[in-house]
Write a structure and sequence with these properties.
Elements lengths: L2 E8 L10 H15 L5 E5 L4 E10 H8 L7 E9 L2 H10 L9 E7 L8 H16 L10 E8 L2 E5 L3 E2 L11 E5 L5 H11 L3 E8 L7 H13 L5 E8 L1 H10 L5 H19 L4 E3 L12 H8 L6 E2 L7 H11 L2 H4 L21 H8 L4 H11 L1 E6 L17
Helix pairs in contact: 3-4, 5-10, 7-8, 8-9, 8-13
This protein binds adenosine-5'-triphosphate (ATP) and magnesium ion.
Length: about 400
């Protein structure tokens, strides 16, 4: 299958939202239209499942790549609309018997239009008998070579051969907004992806150590934000010059505490930006015990200064699982390009794995932490970034399979 005119999409979790269902569905349809902008869409409607009708055939791989960024969609199904009656269904199948191949086959039917005169089972039996008689192919319900799927909806009868996994989750923009602390690494973009998957819109903040680290790492973070912006259309990134603050921590505070103190400064600053931009939480890419600064003790001490919930969607995942998410999000390839992280700049030789809040507070008496947080917030440069072009989209596996 190369080109499609009609695509049906299913959604599960949205449907469970009771009284809010209409609101969720409107958000979902709006996000689908946004993702398909520029393609010749004729109509996106919701008779039973989402039905997307194009004015002319469109490359399936392009449609699939775009719809894979619309959270809330579970199955993406390229379909053919064959009409509204059983006779039309049979007539269509009769004209396409040569596409069934040589092996065995099965017919499966789902009927959401209960006014249709045949039950699902009757459709399966009648159409199965018809195909068998016309082609001589054997029916095999357990392991069919080819499956003919029929959907009977109140807006018509649809046929398909294969369905593809969508991204799942909840529609973007239905769960508030959060601010992601984004480094150039693999983890924080994966954390951003998982947060968006639950419907949360995102802003981003990045701390850099220019001129001690190169500008290339800022460009890299911008590129990652552009890739993540595909899931919400566009995004805002605050770039914070962190080097001077780091230097003061280095000259005034005990060396082993550096990383925890850097993080506390980052969180203080991020919390200010979050409050100003109505973000309800901060998000980081930390996973428990991955590195010295990510022990539970250190996380507790770091969180104390945020005064906002700090979400850590990767907390229970190992590196392989995180990489799989980054690949799915489309950020992995960019994340693995070499970069200089601001925390490797002036990195202590023996960072603490556990520390007490009191110890940090004493160390911070040597520097004006609130003054720094205010200055860093004001020095932050805001950049608005549009989504990366679709041409560079990493396709979900299986997208090209089937026919
Ligand atoms: P990542 O792969 O996201 O860089 P990491 O495994 O390298 O994470 P750390 O370097 O300890 O772990 O960073 C932990 C988290 O702190 C990051 O996931 C990110 O949320 C935040 N963080 C680290 N460095 C920066 C930075 N320069 N700017 C913004 N946030 C940062
Ligand atoms: Mg990192």
């Amino acid at each position: 299958m190369e080109r499609v005119e009609t695509v049906i999409a299913t959604y599960h979790e949205v449907a469970l939202k009771g009284g809010n269902r209409g609101w969720f569905e409107r958000a979902l349809l709006r996000n689908i239209r946004t993702a398909l902008r520029g393609l010749p869409v004729r109509e996106v409607s919701l008779p039973a499942r989402v039905v997307i009708q194009f004015a002319q055939p469109v490359a399936w791989l392009e449609v699939y790549a775009r719809l894979s960024t619309v959270f809330g969609l579970n199955n993406l199904i390229p379909v053919v609309r064959v009409g509204t009656t059983y006779e039309e269904l049979e007539g269509f199948v009769a004209a396409h018997l040569d596409e069934l191949g040589e092996g065995s086959f099965a017919v499966r039917c789902k009927r959401s239009d209960k006014r249709f005169p045949l039950t699902s089972e009757e459709v399966c039996r009648r159409l199965g008998a018809f195909i068998q008689k016309a082609t001589g192919l054997a029916v095999n319900l357990e392991h069919p070579g080819t499956t003919v799927f029929v959907l009977v909806q109140n807006d018509g009868i649809y046929l398909y051969r294969q369905r593809f996994p969508g991204p799942g989750g909840l529609p973007m923009g239905t769960s508030g907004r959060a601010l992601v602390l984004l480094s150039g690494g693999i983890d924080s973009p994966a954390a951003a992806y998982l947060t968006m998957k639950r419907g949360v819109a995102l802003h981003y903040v990045h701390f850099h150590s220019a001129p001690y680290t190169s500008d290339a790492s800022i460009r890299k973070v911008e590129e990652i934000v552009r890739l993540l912006a595909r899931y919400q259309g566009s995004a805002r990134l605050w770039v914070v010059p962190f080097a001077e603050c780091q230097r003061e921590i280095v000259t005034s505070c005990p060396e082993p505490l550096r990383v925890v103190l850097y993080r506390r400064m980052m969180l203080r600053t991020a919390a200010r930006i979050a409050r100003r931009t109505r973000c309800l939480a901060l998000v980081t890419g930390e996973s428990l015990n991955q590195v010295a600064s990510q022990t539970l003790e250190n996380m507790a001490v770091i969180d104390r200064v945020a005064h906002l919930p700090v979400l850590r969607p990767l907390v229970g995942l190992d590196k392989q699982e995180i990489i799989a998410i980054a690949e799915r999000a489309g950020t992995y390839e960019v994340s693995i390009l070499p970069h200089q992280d601001c925390c490797s700049f002036l990195q202590p030789r023996h960072p603490v794995t556990r520390t007490a809040e009191r110890t940090c507070q004493r160390a911070e008496e040597a520097i004006d932490v609130e003054g720094w947080a205010r200055r860093l917030q004001h020095q932050a440069q805001e950049i608005r970034l549009e989504a990366a072009p679709w041409g560079s989209m990493a396709l979900p596996s299986g997208a090209g399979a089937g026919q």
